[in-house]
Design a protein that fits this description.
Layout: H1 4-13, H2 25-40, H3 44-51, E1 55-58, E2 73-77, E3 102-109, H4 113-134, E4 139-147, E5 151-156, E6 159-164, H5 169-183, E7 190-198, E8 206-208, H6 211-232
Parallel strand pairs: 3-4, 4-7
Antiparallel strand pairs: 1-2, 2-3, 5-6, 7-8
Length: about 230
């Protein structure tokens, strides 16, 4: 089956410039994970709660009544006072939530990986703690895109910076993944790195390093998440 997350991730880079400071990219990608969980149709409990709007995606990523760091996508029980709503193009409804049943954090490191890796690890770690503070049983998922291109263009206003050679994504990616595995993976129930190649220069090509492997890893994450959901939220 085609997975919406993988297609949505590709669309961020392919045919257009990626602006790494966009704060909404992670929100949109996390929302697609919930669409894939529903489409896989392996949890009658989750499906029933989504169909009835008993559980929804909190697009503000803030649990009602708590001040916490925002994640990229949280899923939980809707408020009886504010019914969830359906939006065009999505099966899973949206609305404010009373708790967190599933929490997702999405990161994309496309260039200057080693320079920012400590911040990325800290963000991932802190977000996992926030999810668990709201609900100790919350299922936590981290999805990290890691670029492997031999050259990459980044944009700051009208300025263009080119990373290549020893500073290219391809050169830094292995060390970045090693650091992520050591520093952040153990904080999450599910943690996946999506290996891709994007130069971020015209005509803005995009490719998965190994699409078959990536698709299988993501599919396995979805299956395990649904099984875990049935156990933790019967």
């Amino acid at each position: 089956m085609p997975f919406k997350l993988l297609d949505g991730f590709r669309q961020i880079f392919q045919g257009q410039a990626y602006r790494h400071r966009s704060s909404t990219q992670g929100d949109r990608l996390a929302r697609l994970v919930y669409e894939d969980l529903y489409s896989l149709d392996r949890s009658p409990i989750l499906k029933r709660r989504i169909d009835s709007l008993e559980c929804v995606v909190n697009v503000t990523n803030r649990v009602t009544g708590f001040k916490v760091r925002r994640g990229d996508g949280s899923f939980g029980e809707s408020l009886p006072t504010v019914p969830g709503t359906k939006e065009p193009g999505f099966v899973v409804g949206v609305g404010p939530t009373a708790n967190v049943q599933i929490g997702i954090e999405v990161k994309i490191i496309a260039t200057a990986m080693i320079k920012q890796i400590d911040r990325v690890i800290n963000d991932l770690t802190n977000q996992a703690v926030q999810f668990k503070n709201r609900n100790a049983s919350a299922i936590t998922i981290a999805i990290v895109g890691v670029n492997h291109a031999s050259q990459y263009c980044s944009y700051e206003g009208e300025r263009i910076f080119v990373a290549e050679g020893v500073r290219s994504p391809a050169a830094e990616a292995p060390k970045a993944i090693e650091r992520l595995d050591a520093g952040a993976r153990h904080h999450y129930d599910e943690f996946i790195t999506l290996s891709f190649s994007a130069t971020n220069s015209a005509p803005f090509p995009f490719s998965w390093n190994d699409f078959g492997s990536t698709e299988n890893l993501y599919a396995a994450l979805l299956v395990r998440t649904l099984r875990l959901y049935e156990t933790r939220f019967p």
